[in-house]
Specification:
With 150 residues, the chain is mainly alpha-helical. Helices cover 46% and strands 5% of the residues. The chain contains six helices and four strands; from the N terminus they run H-E-E-H-H-E-H-H-H-E. It has helices at residues 3-28, 68-76, 81-86, 96-102, 108-121, 138-144, and strands spanning 40-41, 51-52, 89-90, 148-149. The strands form two sheets. It has a two-stranded antiparallel ribbon. Strands 3-4 form a two-stranded parallel ribbon. It is rod-shaped. The N and C termini lie far apart (86 Å).
């Protein structure tokens, strides 16, 4: 064998060993990266003091963080995440849009009545008090009672 062929073989062996070392290091010696808790805030006036902090995930896939304006657009149209986790909408804090989108049988007009009643009379003390809102009777309340909270 000539010297040039021998040198090429040595370089290939050295490159293979370095690749094996790099792969081994990444597989066994890199410390786990912890993902910090993320807090999402909305700018909705009635829910301005609410924040959502997701539960920590041990092995979360890497994802890009959307810009703040996109987060706000997504948060405005839905009930707050804490309410969604429990499956109930808080009638003392939800906006008219959250009420109409999250409750079956409640449209835009009825949701506006609920918010107006709440602003005029203060927070609901029990879910049964929602029957005092014009247009909500026993039948409507029976459909709502499992989906609302105070």
């Amino acid at each position: 064998m000539d010297d040039e062929t021998l040198q090429v073989r040595y370089l290939i062996v050295i490159a293979a060993v370095l690749c094996a070392l790099i792969i081994g290091y990444n597989a066994f010696y890199v410390p786990e990266v912890s993902i910090p808790d993320i807090a999402v805030m909305t700018d909705v006036s009635s829910a301005a003091d609410e924040t959502y902090t997701p539960k920590a995930v041990s092995a979360a896939p890497a994802a890009s963080i959307p810009d703040e304006s996109k987060q706000q657009e997504e948060a405005v149209g839905t009930a707050s995440a804490a309410e969604a986790l429990h499956g109930k909408i808080n009638i003392n804090t939800a906006t008219a849009r959250q009420l109409s989108d999250g409750l079956d049988g409640i449209g835009d007009v009825m949701a506006k009545r609920i918010v107006d009643y709440r602003e005029k009379n203060g927070k609901f003390k029990s879910i049964e008090e929602i029957k005092n809102v014009s247009g909500i009777g026993d039948k409507t309340f029976a459909k709502l009672k499992d989906h609302i909270t105070v």
